[in-house]
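The instructor's notes for this session suggest beginning with a concrete chain rather than abstract definitions. Hand out the sequence below and ask the class to guess, before any prediction is shown, which regions might be ordered.
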Amino acid sequence: MRKLILNLVLILLFVISSSVYGGDKNVSATYYAKTGDSAFDATLGELNVQTYGRDMSDFISNMSLSYNIPKIRIEDLLFKVEMTPADVYMTLGIGKIANKSIDEVVGEYKANKGQGWGVIAKRLGIKPGSKEFHALKKGGSVELEKAKGKGKDKDKGDEKEKGKKKSKKSKKQKKK
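After discussion, reveal the predicted structure:
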């Protein structure tokens, strides 16, 4: 009887975790960025959909490389502060564009997350429709494409490498 109950509990936990982190398309429906730009909000929601349910290490690595921040700091934002991938992007993007520390952006996030990222960005000096806001929006699209493209062009990259090796060999042969 104990084994049956334990198995049922484990199955239930698996089902719940799968629905939360399984790339469920409803993730974007429950995420409200409130940037003031519906297309940007949709991009951020889709970033969450594309990132959840996958190995988060790719997202963490991309963000770490893009913003020159240690991976552990990205992990802290995701797991300790409990931010979504879109929230992590917004935190790092706003920090970089507005020249603010991560801690300062996180503080504004915690104080004003119910009002949305548009309010947070404005409080940190990024006005709606400004060139800074458009840079933030463009960066969100880039991060989304990275999340979508995970592993798609792996074979093409290998072919490019093979081509480079061949061209190096042919240059060496021409010199001889």
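Then share the key points. The chain has a mean pLDDT of 78. Residues 154-175 form the longest helix (22 residues).
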